[in-house]
Design a protein that fits this description.
With about 325 residues, the chain is an alpha/beta fold. It folds into three domains: about 50 residues, no CATH class; about 150 residues, NAD(P)-binding Rossmann-like Domain (Rossmann fold, 3-Layer(aba) Sandwich); about 110 residues, 2-Layer Sandwich (Dihydrodipicolinate Reductase, domain 2). It is built from ten helices and 14 strands. The protein has a seven-stranded parallel beta sheet, sandwiched between helices. A five-stranded mixed beta sheet has the order 10-11-9-12-13. The longest helix has 20 residues. It starts with a strand and ends with a helix.
């Protein structure tokens, strides 16, 4: 056991913190142990300073060690309206028990990566796996915590679970949190209302080699926007790639093509082809920051909202 004392910046508060090993082993008086304790003390001080600040929104991130979770955590340090209070991962993840600072390559912050949500939370951001998302939804509904879901690859049963959860909590579920992509959704719907019935519509999406689901959730959302604008059923008119002697292209068909290569962050092209001309709507993400910043904006808006299903379109309206 160690006893550490520390003064805050204005020398008005005195802390004494007893650090005891959570693993029930004798803690050695080592440099690393001291670093961990100092990091925890810093977090305690930060919490004390922020107590009573009603404008500060407390956020938990599930899937913290994934590409998106890590980047959201990094960018959140620059946001004065949000405070990260919990870093969550799969219970078997190799980083369980580590300080988040070790993962995002910053100084130790006192936030320990864990599986269970213990901190009081105003909103949870989820970029994980479909099964993990459902598990976190159960926790959120039980504790009335609004949730922002960016996980893709959910099946119909899992999407129904999200819909049911929205009866008890605010749920924002979007396959793409980028403000630019959500503007693309609006443009696709507008163009489809004018040209959709007479155009050959092709959707091409490209992502990095590590993406597990295909087509992307964004590409499917684009196809849904086209179908809504043209009064068609997605399952009736959509195909996924072509092979062999497929014959002439039938009118009204929508085809989605998926590319997986290298480290492409995310690209989506929607082609409206007609005789003598074509229109292409294109969005290219250069970094994941556009998705991460969108998720942060979404969390800011959704915290404190009444139960219901929310879309990124609602976030765009808040920004206008």
């Amino acid at each position: 056991m160690f006893s550490f004392s520390i003064l805050n910046d204005n020398n008005s508060i005195f802390y004494i913190f007893n650090y005891v090993s959570t693993r029930n082993t004798q803690i050695q008086n080592s440099y690393n142990d001291r670093k961990v304790v100092v990091a925890i003390l810093k977090e305690l001080l930060r919490k004390h300073k922020l107590e009573g600040s009603k404008s500060m929104i407390k956020v938990a991130i599930n899937g913290i060690c994934g590409r998106m979770g890590t980047r959201i955590a990094e960018l959140m340090t620059e946001n004065k309206n949000l405070r990260l209070v919990a870093a969550l991962e799969n219970k078997n993840h190799k980083n369980i028990g580590k300080d988040l600072g070790q993962i995002i390559k910053q100084e130790l912050c006192g936030i320990i990566i864990s599986h269970e949500l213990r901190e009081k939370t105003d909103v949870l951001i989820d970029f994980s796996s479909p099964d993990s998302t459902v598990e976190r939804l159960k926790t959120c509904t039980e504790n009335r915590i609004p949730i922002v879901i960016g996980t893709t690859g959910l099946n119909m049963k899992q999407k129904e679970f999200v819909k049911k959860a929205s009866e008890k909590i605010a749920c924002l579920f979007s396959p793409n949190m980028s403000i630019g992509v959500n503007l693309l959704f609006n443009l696709v719907e507008t163009v489809s209302k004018i040209l959709g019935r007479d155009s050959d519509i092709e959707i091409v999406e490209a992502h990095h080699r590590f993406k597990k689901d295909a087509p992307s959730g964004t590409a499917l959302k684009i196809a849904e926007k086209v179908c809504r604008a043209t009064n068609q059923n997605l399952d009736d008119v959509t195909i996924y790639g072509r092979k062999g002697l497929v014959g002439e292209r039938p009118q009204g068909q929508i085809c989605i093509h998926s590319i997986r290569s290298g480290d492409i962050v995310g690209e989506h092209t929607v082609i409206f082809g007609n005789a003598g001309e074509r229109i292409e709507l294109v969005h290219k993400a250069q970094t994941r920051d556009s998705f991460a910043l969108g998720a942060i904006r979404a969390a800011t808006v959704i915290a404190g909202k009444p139960p219901g299903q929310y879309q990124m379109e609602d976030i765009l309206e808040e920004l206008c």
